[in-house]
Amino acid sequence: MSDHRTPPPGHQARPSDPQPRTSEPTAAIPRQAAAARRPDVARLPAARPVRTAVAAHLVGRALSRLPLDVNAGPTRGPGTSRRPDITIHDPDAFFLRIASDGLIGFGESYMAGEWDSDDLTGLLTVLAAHVDDLVPAPLRGLRPLWASARPGRDRNTRSGARENVHRHYDLSNDLFASFLDPTLTYSSALFTALPARPEDLPAAQHRKIDRLLDLAHVTDGSELLEIGTGWGELALRAAARGARVTTITLSAEQAELARARIHAAGLTDRVDVQLRDYRDAEGRYDAVVSVEMIEAVGAEYWPAYFAALRGALRPGGRVALQTITMGHRQMRNTAATHTWISKYVFPGGLVPSRRAITEHAAAAGLRTVSDEGFAEHYAETLRLWRERFTASRQTLTDLGFDTLFQRLWEFYLAYSEAGFRSRYLDVRQIVLAEKPRPGERP
Predict the structure, then answer these.
(1) Count of domains in the chain?
(2) 278 shares a domain with 344
(3) Is there a domain that residue 6 lies in?
(4) Domain termination site, one of 101, 124, 147
(5) Which domain holds residue 167?
(6) How do residues 31-64 score in pLDDT, each as one tens digit?
(7) CA 20 to 30 Å from 174, out of 82, 184, 405, 427?
(8) Alpha-carbon distance 309 to 427, whole Å?
(9) Is the pLDDT confidence value at 137 over 90?
């Protein structure tokens, strides 16, 4: 992603105090102004009158049957309903994009300002909960005819993985600091009570991290490998326990800030931050922890990922994973097609199913010790991030992140929250250990 100004090195923006979100309608973004930033948003697809008419009929019919308020035209309707709404400012462009690119076009239409909602997450939650009802059953088998294949450039080869990580995680540390809590933890928290308050988030992130470290049996003197550094909070917590931590990442910006935070905590003698691919991890450890990293690996490389986990374990060691999951059928459908998320947010990524994790772990010589989900906690985490993000519009603008980028990320955060609220997605903490040899008890 390159439609932003890179802030000065070392500059760290801090989140501003949340402000009430305006409900004023958003005018469509001028296409000529967006051309250099997101060309597929800036220009409309080639006209396809018949296909567009069919899409308008099918989508309009599907929306009318859902618990939604649908407003077509340049302004929102004055209704007093509490149901989620969708206001389509430019119906011709909206249906043309969907006719051409399906759900990618739906997301691009939002980015372009062609439709809005007073309750974006509520709208997307309804759509996620009824995803199988949006297309008539006789037409579902035609999905391969209109769904785009994933581009080969997004494959997670060693060079491809570096580029894919760079496109998301190296956007700027200031961007992430604008909506994450002070722990700079970019994964689901674990709360004591729901709904959560903004001030609950740092403790909930520590609770999540501490539980993973407990599951991996990380104690004073343990040698720990972390695959996926983030901004270093897990490494800091583990080192404070007395563990010696090797943590690896492909994000240069994350590595730089993680090292600075570790140095400020006086723990540089206990934590080694390496800019390294998981396939090149060296040594063997008492424990391996990897938080929401497998989603960026890609199905093609899951065997290599689980082989790396197994190869890094000493006898008797444990792997603790935190991972987003989806149903196996949904995963197979998603794996075969290019999606809005893979195009704009996580190139090369794929959310695994629990079945896929179990099968690939077993093939690598690992067995599942425990497996626990907490989807509602991720929904709350994302709500707090999204509210912080939308309250930081001026900060983001000052950093050089324009309206198009902000709408992209608002849609991403709401889209993800809706996935967990509808239970289309889950998040799980999974413990793996080596499979017993013949004659041994697990």
Answers:
(1) 2
(2) yes
(3) no
(4) 147
(5) 154-434
(6) 444 434 588 998 999 999 999 999 999 999 999 9
(7) 427
(8) 20
(9) no
Judged on CB neighbours under 10 Å (0-12, 13-18, 19+), 301 is buried
Q: Residues 6 or more apart from 239 whose CB is under 8 A from it?
A: 245, 262, 265, 267, 270, 271
Say what the pTM is.
0.88
Tell me: do 207 and 65 sit in the same domain. Answer: no
* CA atoms of 442 and 435, how far apart (whole Å): 7
Q: What is the dihedral of CA 156, 211, 281, 365, to 10 degrees?
A: -80
Query: 156 near 348, Cβ under 8 Å?
Result: yes
Q: From CA 309, how far away is CA 288, in angstroms rounded? A: 7
* CB-side neighbour CA atoms (13 Å) of 251: 26
Q: What is the DSSP string of 215-239?
A: HTT--TT-EEEEE--TTSHHHHHHH
Same domain flag for 279 and 418: yes
Say if residues 242 and 221 touch (Cβ distance below 8 Å).
yes
Q: Within a domain: residue 2?
A: no
Which of 93, 123, 147 delimits the end of a domain?
Answer: 147
At 241 the three-state DSSP class reads coil
Residues 181 and 59 in one domain: no
Beta bridge partners, 427, equal 324
110 and 192 in a single domain? The answer is no
Asked if residue 360 and residue 300 are part of one domain, the reply reads: yes
Angle between helices 201-215 and 233-240 (to 10 degrees): 60
Q: Which of 390, 65, 111 is nearest to 103 (CA)?
A: 111
Decide: 107 and 340 in contact? Cβ < 8 Å. yes
Q: 77's torsion region: left (phi>0), alpha (psi -120 to 50) or beta?
A: beta
Q: What are phi and psi of 78, to 5 degrees?
A: -90, 10
pLDDT tens, residue by residue, 357-368: 999 999 999 999
pLDDT score of 143: 57
Q: Which residue do the tokens 């007073």 mark?
A: 118
Encoded tokens for 276: 């390294």
Look up tokens 């990922």; give the residue: 305
* Domain annotation covers residue 412: yes
Q: What is the pLDDT of residues 343-399, one digit of tens each?
A: 999 999 999 999 999 999 999 999 999 999 999 999 999 999 999 999 999 999 999
Whether 281 is in a domain gets the answer: yes
- In the structure encoding, which two tokens stand for residue 40, read together? 């597929």
Are 167 and 70 found together in one domain? no
